[in-house]
Amino acid sequence: MFEDFRELFRSSGTYLGAGILILAVALVPNEAAAQQSPETEQIAYVFKRGDTLFGLANKYLRKQSDYSAVQRINRIGNPRQIPVGKSLQIPVYLLKYRPSKASLSAFRGSISIATGGRELTPVQGLSVAEGSQIKTAARSFLTLQLEDGSRVSLPSNSQVRITRLRHILLTDSMDYEIAVDKGRIRSKVTPLQKKADRFRVRTPVAVSAVRGTDYRTRVDEMSGTVFSETVEGEVVVAAGQSLSRGAMVSIPAGTGAAATVTGALAKAELLSPPELLDPAKVQSEEGLRFAIVPRDTAVGHRMIIASDAGFVDLVAEEQEKGAVIDLATIPNGRYYAKLSALAADGFEGMPATYSFKRQLSTLGGSADAGDFGYRFKWFGAGEGQRFYRLQILKDSKTAIPILDEAGLSTDTVTLSELPDGEYYWRVGVTQFSSDPEDPKAIEKWTDFEKLTVAN
Fold first, then answer.
1. Closest CA to 241 of 200, 205, 281
2. Which residues are CB-neighbours of 445 under 8 A, at least 6 positions away?
């Protein structure tokens, strides 16, 4: 199959040696099953000196008698007289293979991995085999690491099957295929080293064959449309049942293609990476809030949070309309955010990656009159050592403080006497991180509160 694609690329002037190729074939589901069945997939093998058809069958075919099928497919009259250099087309389903390896690199939340009808207990490093069914629930994430170093990440509410995870012995090549039944995946594919290496992502209406790239696949739950978006590398998309050059379009980085259940194919430019209004902001409140520079072309935004720059350990994800994204609380630490804009046509734009610090530090206060005077009290949450500072100003928020007490470790100050008048007060906190490798403290203040004293 790749040899046919390779010829198309040569004739169109595209250099396959760049190591990147994706082919998305848009078909209605029953046609896809017929055209892409394992019985129709073939690989090319160039006959070498010392090879015999019988010897190849004995070593590399599942049954030695299958040599006759290879002979028939390649129209070989005499199997004992095959010239060196002749290219043989061999059906993949006839070839011997060893199971390739995949492992669970990271996961969070509620995930399900089932093999042979048996549910596996997810632990980091768990071996995941061909035939496995994988699901993520809401606010749940996982990343798989394949034998060649490629990674596949599933965000929330996604479901995939590993339909091919093999190492073909004849060509010493990888043969991977992942079926996306629901939701989204991100494929970070290591450039394949051999022309027989194959990495495919299959959906109900499209299939992508990859030579090494970073791209996203999403199945729209309502319409069934499949969106493929290229972040790095280049994509070539073929619509319908024909792989003729006329049906192929180039999808380089920054563009995407949408395949519908009817076989229609649309191409679009992806929105450029969005910008945060304050990328250096420390996320110290109970919930996280990211403000985005607004623009008319985006109808919303999606953000993915990970604990590592490679986005293997996914922590949180949120999608919002407008230019503000709010996320639930996460533990203190250093994180990475991948932010992308959403277009009205359904495509997700190019991502921008930011690093940020999360250190919970909340602060509030109250003031009231008691039996022993006026009591100022404050409260808040956050790990690490906290020191407070109380300021009280008379008549105006811009006046010189009549009281400015810093370095307080308690949460209450009582003043026995305050003359009649209007006062403005606030409390601040200096909080040091509990991480010894993070010496920088957070400083914040409450808003000024007004206190009227009439004795």
1. 205
2. 363, 426, 427, 428, 429
Kindly tell me if the per-residue pLDDT of 246 is higher than 50.
Answer: no
Specify the pLDDT at position 250: 76
* Spatial separation of the C-alpha atoms in residues 113 and 131, rounded to whole Å: 10
Q: How many CB atoms lie within 10 A of CB 46?
A: 10
Residues carrying CATH 2.60.120.1440, the chain: 2-39+96-267
- Residue whose structure tokens are 């985006």: 298
* DSSP secondary structure, 27-65, as one string: --HHHHHHHT-GGG-EEEEE--TT--HHHHHHHHBSSGG
Is pLDDT of 446 > 60?
Answer: yes
Mean pLDDT value across residues 25-46: 52
- Distances from the Cα of 206 to the Cα of 22, 34, 220, angstroms: 11, 13, 12
N-to-C CA span, the chain: 91
Rounded to an integer, the average pLDDT of 425-450 is 92
Tell me the whole-structure pTM to 2 decimals: 0.81
DSSP sequence for 113-161: EEETTEEEPP-TT-B--TT-EEEE-TT-EEEEEETTS-EEEE-SS-EEE
**What is the pLDDT at residue 40?**
64
In CATH, 2-39+96-267 is 2.60.120.1440: yes
- Is 176's pLDDT higher than 80? yes
Q: Rounded mean pLDDT of 123-150?
A: 96
Which architecture characterizes domain 288-358 according to CATH?
A: Sandwich (2.60)
How far is residue 254 from each of residues 159, 214, 264, 274, 349, measured CA to CA in Å? 26, 11, 21, 13, 8
Q: Give residue 64's Cα distance to chain centre.
A: 44
Residue 244 has pLDDT above 60, yes or no: no
Superfamily of domain covering 364-453: Immunoglobulins (2.60.40.10)
* Residue 236 CB contacts under 8 Å (≥ 6 apart), including other chains: 5, 9, 14, 21, 22, 23, 248, 249, 250, 251
Nearest Cα neighbor of 280 from 290, 268, 265 is 290
β-pair type (255-259, 173-188): unpaired
In the prediction, which pLDDT does 248 show?
63
Cα separation, 451 vs 244, whole angstroms: 79
Residue type (1 letter), 187: S
% of the chain residues with pLDDT over 70 = 88
- CATH 2.60.40.10 positions along the chain are 288-358, 364-453
Query: Residue 94 — left, alpha, or beta (φ > 0 → left; ψ -120 to 50 → alpha)?
Result: alpha
- Give the pLDDT confidence of 143-153 residue by residue, as tens digits: 999 999 999 99
